Each structure stands twice: as C-alpha cells, then as structure tokens.
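cron nightly-structures :: item 1 of 1
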Amino acid sequence: MLSNLLVRIDLSRKDFSKGQRKIADYIEEHYDSAAFMTAAKLGEVVGVSESTVVRFATQIGYDGFPYLQKAMQEMIRDKLNSIQRIEVTTGRIGDSDVVESVLNQDIDKIRRTIDEVSREDFKKSVNAIINARNIYVFGVKSASYIANFLAYYLDLIFGNVHFLNSTSKTTTYEKLFRVTDRDVMIGISFPRYSSMAVDAMSFAHDRGAEVIAITDSMVAPVVKDADEVLLARSDIASVVDTLVAPLSLINALLVAIVIERKEEIKNTFSNLEKVWQEQNVYAVNRLEDINKDKENG
C-alpha cells in the first residue's frame, strides 16, 4: 500500500547504497518537501544523480519515481495509521536504547522547528493575541493537551480565552458562533489531522477573525484558512504523537507575550499571588515550617 512508504524504506535499508541511504534519510525527515520535487530536484537537494533517485524508487518496490512521489503525497494527506506507526517505530529503534533514541529524536524535532518556524508569523501572532478582544483556542485528541496548556496561561494573563476541545459540531459552534473580526482563533492540529479543526478555523476565518495555525507542515489542511502559520515538527511515524516541539513553540509564544506586556502582566500576577496566598491555594513550603519551628524553640 502507498501509505507503507516508511515501512518499505526500513525493510530495504540494509541493501541501500550510500546514495540511496541519503535519499531515504531525506524522505523520512522532509517527506512534505520531497513529495513535490521532481526526481532531478530531489537528487540535486540530496547530492545524488537523478538516476540514483529513480533506482531508489524501484529498489523499494515502486514502478518508477512518479509512484514514489504519489506515495509521499498520500503520506502527507493521510499519514500513518496506528498499526503502521508501531511497525515503523520498532524498526527504527531495534535493539538501541529506547530512552536515548526517543529523546534524541525529540531534540532533533526541536532543532528543526527552530530553523523552520517563521519569525514574521511568530511576531504577527504575538501582536494579534495581545490585541484580541477574545481568544479562541482549538485542539482535540492529543493536541487538546497542549491547546489546554496554552489556553490556561493565556486566560491567566488576559481573562478572555475560550477553549474548544470537542469534535462535536454542535458544541464547537455553540462556543464559536460569537466570533468576530476583533477576535483571534488559534487552531492546533497535528497528524492525524482533525476535520473539526479545519472546519472550526474556516468558520472563524469567514467571520473575519485572525486565524493562527500551529501545525507541522505548510500542506496541512488547517493552513488554508490561516493568516499566520507556526510550524513545529512532530513525527508521523512515532507510536505516540510527538508533541515536544509544538509545546516548546507554545512556551516561546507565551514568553514573547509576557515580554511584550511585561508591566501589565506583572500587575496581573501580583494580584493573583495575593489571592492565592489569601485563599491558601498552594501548600506551604515545608522547609519554611521547619525553620519557623526552630526559631520558636
């Protein structure tokens, strides 16, 4: 099947030439770019001949480069299902140390996110969020956890946040129907992409809201209605959704917002700290209790 491209690569890797290994590594890391390259262009980028690219396609079982290209494009649209992810992940790690392997892959995703995220769109996103009347944050399934993280801190800072994490159309549009051109919609979506995320962002866009997409690729379906796109690398072949890089990007977004509105946010958190202390929200530091006991004899 076309969606088994990464499995095919892993099964054939031991027989690859040096040039073919370069092609395999590039496709695994940059499938979204490679999917729209000609064989000549892919060879140029990787540093091999066009004929090596063509032979690579047949080596892994395709009837020529156009079929390999179609497989990469299918991978972008549909990604891998859960069973295929397990197969690819176990093949990648093999007998290696799991902790080292997985953490190094996450480190690589963060490094690539640093290189690929648009600084211009990042700055525009910060300004849009700061100036919004209302902020809507959408994320479902595994993306809902980092969306909730973002919504939690934005609501502490601004108090005007609406968190949407339902795949129900009724629930989503009941929360979203008041959105206007004075608002911001932040949609967080990673493979396998949520159709509800696409629909919700399209609805907000049609109502004139500023739409920010946090996703992994410029060909992700949530990009089409986005005014700003913040790319963060995930891993389509991981057993679990790899959201380390997206969370780091969200941390950066929050830090930038705090820096931009430092004095205002300091006042907000100063008032919050007073309330937390008055209401005993947080447990007292045990070390402070010990020191007080010593002082009192």
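cron nightly-structures :: done
The chain has 14 helices and five strands.
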